[in-house]
UniProtKB/TrEMBL annotation:
It comes from Liquidambar formosana (Formosan gum). This is Uncharacterized protein. It comes from the Eukaryota. The lineage of its organism: Eukaryota, Viridiplantae, Streptophyta, Embryophyta, Tracheophyta. Pfam families: DUF247.
Amino acid sequence: MRLSYPLSGDVSIAKWTHLIKETLGIVRAKSIDNCIYEVPKELQKVNEDAYRPHIVSIGPLHEGDHDLQAMDEHKWRYMLHLLQRNPEQEKTLNECSMAIFSLEAKARGSYAKTIKFNTYELAEILLVDGCFIIELLRFSGMHFEDDSDLIFHNDWMIPTLRHDLGLLESQIPFFVLEHLLEICVPHNLELHTTQVSIHKIADLALYFFQVKMSGEASRRI
């Protein structure tokens, strides 16, 4: 980026150096906060299909894409499933909502691109998508027997979701997932687990992607 100088008059070396320092401070602050970037347009042109989600929008960068809206109802259903695991569902939802609103500004600053959605819209995206991801990751390591579920009873869905969740532009900040998991899956919740901790989002994510990498698709918690 190029600095702005007065249209007329000389700029002293001291003033010029001060502008350099200010700009370095801005760059440093952004480099710390920004962690979710867009794929450069020129790179997308090489193979656009490889860099765009196929069935689900995660985060604000592809929110509203007409081709991805068919999954919206499933995201809300998975959020409901996650909340229903708790005996005090309304309390859990209230705690999740308050947590998301407290994190909204920090989450917004995590995106290199300016987010077009207002506070309430972005908070909704973070809440629904975050709960969807957590429940998806947990379902992937459980013996799932709900025949009405579209995702786990279609052989092509999980590989496609792995592709979409791994994309650079299909992300929400990791700290959002950590906060939601801590609220929705309390440590006193008893589940039979043998392969992965249900209380660590990193472990759940690694398991979800390693099933594909290791070929152990039949392994269950």
